Amino acid sequence: MPHLAPGAPSARRRLLKKLAALLHSGPDSTDELLAALSAAEQRQLIDGESHAMLEGVLRLADMCAGDVMLAAPRMVLLDIEAPYEELLARVIDSGHSRFPVFQDSSENIIGVLMAKDLLKLQRAPDLNIRALLRPAMFVPESKGLNDLLREFRRSHNHLAIVIDEFGRCAGLITIEDVLEQIVGEIEDEFDSEPGEEDIFALADGAWRVAGDTPPEHVAEHFEVTLHEADAERDLHPEFDTIGGLIAHALGHVPVRGERCRMGGLEFKVLHMRGGAVRWFRVQRVAADAPDAPDAPDAPDAPDAPSTPQISSQPAPL
C-alpha cells in the first residue's frame, strides 16, 4: 500500500473505495459467473476444456440423483438364491464391476456384490455368498449431486441405490455418473476414438460391432442383406445405425445380453451407455439354425434371412 501523508483522509477514502470495488466487483449470480467464464475463454485466459469442467462443477449444484440415475428397469441385479454358475454368467455378460443383490423381490436390495469377490467362490465353494456382500448405500432421488459426491468420498462407496418418495427402488447411481457431469463422458475399454474402425474381429471367430455403425456398412462387411422394404408391416424404415435397426426389430430398447437374429447374423448386446447400444457381439448363424442355447423356447428361424428373429428369453433387468 502506498504511503499516505497524515491529514489526507480523502485520499484514504478513495483508496478504500477502490479496494472495495475490486473485491466486490465479481459476479452476483451463477448466470453471471457462467458469463464470466465464457468471457475468460474468449480472452484465452482459460481453454475450452477448463471452461466446460468449471461450468459442470457449477451446474452440479442444481442437479440431483434422480436427474442422472440409471432407471430401475435397466438395472442389472443378482438374486442371492441363484446358483454360482448363473451369477457368474450374468456378471460376465453385463461387464459391470458392482451389482446390487436382492432377495425374494427386486425391491428388497440386501447388499452389493463386487465382481472380483465372486471369484473367491471358485477357490472356496463352501463360502456363503452372503459373506461377500457389502452394505448397500441408499439415497433419495432428491439428493443433490454435490452432497452425493461428498458422501461417496466419505464412505468409499462407488454405487448407491436411489429410492423414490414411496420408498421403492427408483434406480442406481455411481460415482462415475456424477463425475461425468463435470468432466464429460468417461471412456472405457469398450469405447473407441472417433474415426477408428467400428467392426473388430475377435479371437473366437465372432466380431465386435459398434452400435452406431451404419447398417449399410454392416451389410457390406458381412455380405448379407439385413433388411428389405416391407411397407405393409412397416418393419424396415430407414435407420442411421445398426443399434436403431436392432431396437426397432426387438420392439424395445435392448438390454445387455439380449440377442436378435437378422440376415444370417446373431447380434448380442455387449455394452450399453445412456440407453443406446455401444457394442454388439456378432456371429454368423445358418438360416435354419436353432435358437441360441439361452433361448430354447423361441420359434425356429425363418427361411428368409431378411426377417429378424428375436430371442424369447425374458430380458434381464
Features:
11 helices, Uridine Diphospho-n-acetylenolpyruvylglucosamine Reductase, domain 3, 4-stranded mixed sheet, single chain, 317 residues, disordered C terminus, 21% strand, alpha+beta, globular, CBS-domain
SSE string: HHHHEEHEEHHEHEEHEEHHEEEE
Q: What is the straight-line distance between the termini?
A: 67 Å
Radius of gyration: 27 Å
The computed structural class is alpha+beta
Please tell me the overall pLDDT. 76
- Count the E strands: 13
Assigned CATH architecture of the largest domain? Roll
Alpha plus pi helix count: 11
What does the model show?
It is a single chain. With 317 residues, this protein is an alpha+beta fold. It has 2 domains: 66-183, CBS-domain, CATH 3.10.580; 199-310, 2-Layer Sandwich (Uridine Diphospho-n-acetylenolpyruvylglucosamine Reductase, domain 3). The protein is built from 11 helices and 13 strands. The chain has helices at residues 9-23, 30-42, 48-60, 65-68, 84-94, 115-118, 120-123, 145-155, 175-183, 215-222, 242-250; strands at 70-71, 78-79, 98-103, 105-114, 138-140, 159-163, 169-174, 199-201, 207-210, 259-262, 265-273, 276-284, 309-310. The chain has a 6-stranded antiparallel sheet, covered by helices on one side. Helix 2 (30-42) runs antiparallel to helix 3 and helix 3 (48-60) crosses helix 9. The protein is globular. Residues 192-196, 229-236 and 290-317 have low confidence and may be disordered.
